[in-house]
Amino acid sequence: MTLTLMDLGWSASFEQARAEHPGALTPYRLTEIHRAQMNALGADGPVVLTTPKFSAGELAVGDWVLADPEMRIQHILERRSLLQRRGAGTDAHVQLIAANVDTLFIVTSCNDDFNIARLERFLALAHEAGCYPVLVLTKADMCEDPREYEREAQVLDPMLTILTVNARDPESAAEVAAWCKSPQTAAFIGSSGVGKTTLTNALTGGDAATGAIREDDARGRHVTTARSMRPMLKGGWIIDMPGMRALRLIDTREGIDNVFDDLAELEAKCRFSDCAHESEPGCAVQAAIAAGDLDLERLDRWLKLRKGEKKNSETVAQSRSREKKFSKMVKGVVKGAKHRKGR
Ligand SMILES: Nc1nc2c(ncn2[C@@H]2O[C@H](COP(=O)(O)OP(=O)(O)OP(=O)(O)O)[C@@H](O)[C@H]2O)c(=O)[nH]1
Ligand SMILES: [Zn+2]
């Protein structure tokens, strides 16, 4: 079967972005990122692209790129959505996780894995990235009253789409697939063991474990880190995002405020614009707590999430500026050396 660009998720907005780059350039969608070369799909099938102009870290699986006749990536087209996080361990870099994901399936199980703070974090990520979030509650078959989990999750957002499934049941998998129809792109996120692989396999008919690269993470555990874009059985795409358990949010302030919109609204009414909502006079948040209008635990989760996000974003920004200064200095030294040679 040959694929058209449309089957790959091409749309009017990408066509517009492409028009800004005249010349003999062809669009491709990246399916795998490697250090020196990228696997991609285009209207003429699978290809291998090189990236003399970009480092591997600047590209994400799911990206639309324009390549020249020598198969070199010349441009990355503006992304419709972008999932990113701060690297694991002491790494202060931004990691691009996946681009142009339409639906982000947030997976948790109807058991101890279910954790409101974690769901809020994933929802903030989805909002910030520009993906449509769908909550998938797995292992409903092993739980007495899955409705209880549904009810608790729905409190987060009355409009949130929630699917309660048994990931091992093909009918359930079909229900999940219905939320990401051809030619859209989906990704699964959630803790280990919640059923992401089971669902991915059901939707793609393949074995997600094949071809994965195992690396040591910060704690010396083995994690699967290879990301790839694969076709679903009924059209549409899945981007595998193994190793997405430790999620350190960066630049997600808006996403967080979206999940906690009531608190963000309240905050705007505080007397001081930098109110910490602790004991400041004229704090609208504390006033709501005092009036019994606001759940103290929810306030704690909001403050904690924002604090962590701020710290990660600052660390990344600092290391960016350090690197910029360093590369400027190196350039200066090289220039100086050339200058001296020339004389
Ligand atoms: N009964 C039941 N078992 C499930 C369900 N979802 C997943 N499982 C089982 O739970 C185990 C873990 O599922 P996986 O699909 O490997 O979980 P994962 O999220 O991919 O885990 P990682 O690969 O570690 O991130 C497997 O044995 C699955 O068969 C479900 O809805 N019901
Ligand atoms: Zn306040």
* Portion in beta strands: 15-25%
CATH homologous superfamily designation of the largest domain: P-loop containing nucleotide triphosphate hydrolases
Task: Classify the helix fraction into a percent range.
Answer: 25-40%
Count of helices?
Answer: 9
Low-confidence stretches: 209-224
Shape descriptor reads globular
Bound molecules: guanosine-5'-triphosphate, zinc ion
Oligomer: single chain
What structural class do the secondary elements suggest? alpha/beta
CATH architecture of the largest domain: 3-Layer(aba) Sandwich
Mean pLDDT: 88
Q: Kindly state the number of beta strands.
A: 15
Give me the side-by-side strand order of the main sheet.
10-9-8-11-15-14
Keywords: Cytoplasm, GTP-binding, Hydrolase, Metal-binding, Nucleotide-binding, Ribosome biogenesis, RNA-binding, rRNA-binding, Zinc
GO cellular component, one term: cytoplasm
Subunit structure: Monomer. Associates with 30S ribosomal subunit, binds 16S rRNA.
Subcellular location: Cytoplasm
Task: Kindly describe this structure.
By secondary structure, the protein is of the alpha/beta class. It folds into 3 domains: 12-76, Nucleic acid-binding proteins (OB fold (Dihydrolipoamide Acetyltransferase, E2P), Beta Barrel); 82-240, P-loop containing nucleotide triphosphate hydrolases (Rossmann fold), CATH 3.40.50; 253-322, Orthogonal Bundle (Ribonucleotide Reductase Protein R1, domain 1). The chain contains 9 helices and 15 strands. It has a 6-stranded mixed β-sheet, sandwiched between helices. A 5-stranded antiparallel β-sheet has the order 3-2-1-4-5, with no helix packed on it. Strand 9 (132-138), helix 3 (146-154) and strand 10 form a beta-alpha-beta unit. Helix 6 packs across helix 7 (261-267). The termini are far apart. It binds guanosine-5'-triphosphate and zinc ion. Zinc ion is lined by residues 270, 275, 277, 280, 283-285. Zinc ion binds at residues 270, 275, 277, 280, 283-285.
